[in-house]
């Protein structure tokens, strides 16, 4: 492929991601009203946000199957869940800067814990000034259940007797997502009366248009990734991991920024885990239904190991956060460093073999 051709498909990819972002934004917009309607706290709200913003990845994996490029979908599914966790946590941290006062997020971080707002207000200003305020209950309600989801994927796809993706695996993962979503919503409900926000026909129409836009954009993203992988001389799996996955995060990045800036700090910060859970289960389904062997087993298991390890580290940081008031700057930077470690392992050990 010529340089001009590669540039063309790169532009198609960027345009597809941009259009998918618009669609995701229209889907994510009613989330705050749903939280009010169902009296959902920050952790439960994050589960609903994640389901909405995961639609691009789910559409991409389905589109990759339809277009006969399932390895792109597999790379996207795993790669997104590796890069998204540190990247979106960092974006949430930066977006929360105008909301450094705990009172700004009191409807979020103190949900289900009336004393948390007072404890946060009494925190030492210097020690908590640069913290990302996340309800610590998110560790057990969302993050650790997500670790269980990814561990289940590893159990279903790594052992030699049943290595690869099989149709039965898809049905198992659908059931796993139903359990994940149900427990997140039930355990994360707020102790408050439901509200009755106004719903407009225009809002509903835009949300539907957003869903259609995401599906259409997904087909162009997969096709452009396929051409770019060929131009770079890499496999579809590598293209999905390191081309489609990073660019495909644009909708989630904008969504996280918008939700956190609106004051829903916990919901915006943990929707990356609920989004990743939806990607690893709902996105898993179309790939498993057609049956998919793993062509680069070393790259797959290393990526999956980091997909399990990163949320486990996050849960530990969140559970033992200093004073119980949030993740500090050094913890966010440490988390980013784990992704750099992943890149070093892939470039230095996986790809040369």
UniProtKB/TrEMBL annotation:
Membrane topology: Multi-pass membrane protein
InterPro entries per UniProt: NaCa_Exmemb, NCX_ion-bd_dom_sf
Keyword Nucleus: no
Keyword field: Membrane, Transmembrane, Transmembrane helix
Start and end residues of each Sodium/calcium exchanger membrane region domain: 10-182, 204-347
Any one Pfam family match given in the protein's UniProt record, by short name: Na_Ca_ex
TM region(s), chain numbering: 36-60, 72-95, 138-158, 206-222, 229-250, 270-292, 299-320, 332-351
Region feature (Disordered): 99-124
Cellular localization per UniProt: Membrane
Protein name: Sodium/calcium exchanger membrane region domain-containing protein
